[in-house]
Amino acid sequence: MTDLLNLLFNPLPNGIMTILMGFSLLYWIFQFLLGDGLDFGGDSDFHFGDISEVDADADLHSETDLDASETGEPSFFTKCLDFINVGKVPLMIIITLFKFFSWVITLVSTTLLGLAAFGSLSVLVLIPVFIIVFILMHWVTEPLVKAFKELGYHGEEETDFIGRIGTMKSTIEGDKIGSAEFYIDKDIFTLNVKSISGDKIAFGETVIISDEEITQKYYLVAKHLTLNSI
Q1: Cβ neighbourhood burial of 169 (10 Å; 0-12, 13-18, 19+)
Q2: Which residues have C-beta within 8 Å of that of residue 139, sequence separation ≥ 6?
């Protein structure tokens, strides 16, 4: 038992990943006990907007500029999320799998390489581990994409964003693509957006989604005018 605990928490990278994996384990235990969050049909508790949505935490996205290039090319961050199939597989499943593989590889690498001798510097091993696992996640999630599609999970298709009102998190003008936050049913969605008229829309302004550019994965927005804003 002592040897097992020593493996799980020593050196530092092992301890970090064991704790993170423990949080995910607790999350899923609560999900099963409460009987919530595991329905992947039309009334699924998992909500995804566009592929640019990452989390339901507003602080994660505050003033984060997800601008793409002026050619309408999706941003690098958006491409990274698309690479690991965020939006096609429930986010918490992707996070859990990412942590699980990172945890296993960390335990193996620290043991084989004898990283305990490096003390706190051994935590640097997590950098290559995360990079390797991120690449692996593309192939790990591919079978899940097919499985959840068969189960009726449709990701971003579950929410109709046309007519939704939100707040700009960056400034857009012309062909520039930026990001905006939308509150829908107590969830927060961060979407890639572009001005429908090309007029400047500044950070913090209220916008309304008028249309969707499906091929480029962004939404066309216009300023939302009210009596107070006129």
Answers
A1: buried
A2: none
Structure tokens at 229: 């804003």
Mean pLDDT of the chain: 81
Neighbours of 192 (CB within 10 A): 28
pLDDT confidence band for 227 (50 / 70 / 90): low
pTM: 0.58
Within 10 angstroms of residue 190's Cβ, the number of other Cβ atoms is 23
118-131 tens-digit pLDDT: 999 999 999 999 99
Whether 78 contacts 68, CB under 8 Å: yes
Distance, C-alpha 150 to centroid of its chain: 22
Cα 181 from Cα 115, distance rounded (Å): 43
